[in-house]
Amino acid sequence: MEKISVTIITLNEEANICACLESVQWVDEILVSDSGSSDRTVEICKEYGAKVFVDEWQGFGKQKNLIAGKAKNNWILNIDADERVTSDLRKEIESVLNNGGCNGYNIPRKNFFGERWIKYCGWYPDYNLRLYKKDKGQFNERTVHEAVQIEGRAGCLKASLEHYTYKDISDYLKRMDRYSALAAEEMFKKGCKAGYFDILFRPLFTFLKMFFLQKGFLEGYIGLMLSGLYSAYTFSKYTKLWEISGKK
Questions:
Q1: How many CA atoms lie within 13 A of 208 on its CB side?
Q2: Residue 27 and residue 76 in contact, taking contact as beta carbons nearer than 8 Å
Q3: pTM
Q4: What is the pLDDT of residues 5-14, one digit of tens each?
């Protein structure tokens, strides 16, 4: 089997990183790009045998390309600190690297809110291209919602990557401010503007899509809550875009 390098970017991930690193101890190389953690993240990564680089923050896409460029192997498996590679996923990865003919593979994610796996609201299967050949692909250099773009054919795996997305509502709200600001900046760079329609109706559409079209109602209270939280995120993103547009 061809050898794999796992790449992870971190910032104060002490609470998550142990379980993440435990799940990838089978790979040939683990590389971590840390952007200035003040907790034990770096120490823990070194204890698990990872090669740790302290890099100035450049944005999600650039940071992931930076650490991939330091890998000695051509196959890259990129994961986040709050993700876990299951034993089934490991077996499937080993299988496709022996027998597959693709330059990259989309991996489904099981997204958790707290300890609960969310099957609806558009949260599953949530395919992301995370396994790829370094010489055939790289992340686009967006500041947020970055994704791998590859040359040639991409396949899809069946086994899931587990993603412990948010601990609770407070965790979501803390991160919402940052991510909505980054998304608004990204939209502004592309020449987008926000108007009354965007601010009034896009949040409503987000709620209706998640709760009804994506069957969030089958999640009960959690589905209602998530639909409302994502509606709030959409409102925050477009009001920030409106604010940025008015200042520049």
A1: 5
A2: no
A3: 0.95
A4: 999 999 999 9
DSSP letter for 197, please. H
Same domain, 8 and 103: yes
Q: State whether residue 93 is helix, strand or coil.
A: helix
Pair 215, 228 in one domain: yes
CA 233 from chain centre, in angstroms, equals 17
Cβ proximity of 29 and 6 under 8 Å: yes
Considering only CA atoms, which of 105, 61, 63, 55 is closest in space to residue 85? 105
Specify whether the CB–CB gap between 177 and 236 falls below 8 A: yes
pLDDT score of 246 more than 90: no
Enter the tokens of residue 235: 């409102």
Amino acid present at 122: G
Residue 86 is part of which domain span?
4-165
**Residue 51: what residue type?**
K
User: What confidence tens digit (pLDDT) does each residue in 87-131 have?
Assistant: 999 999 999 998 878 999 999 999 999 999 999 999 999 999 999
Q: Is 167 exposed, middle or buried (0-12, 13-18, 19+ CB in 10 A)?
A: middle
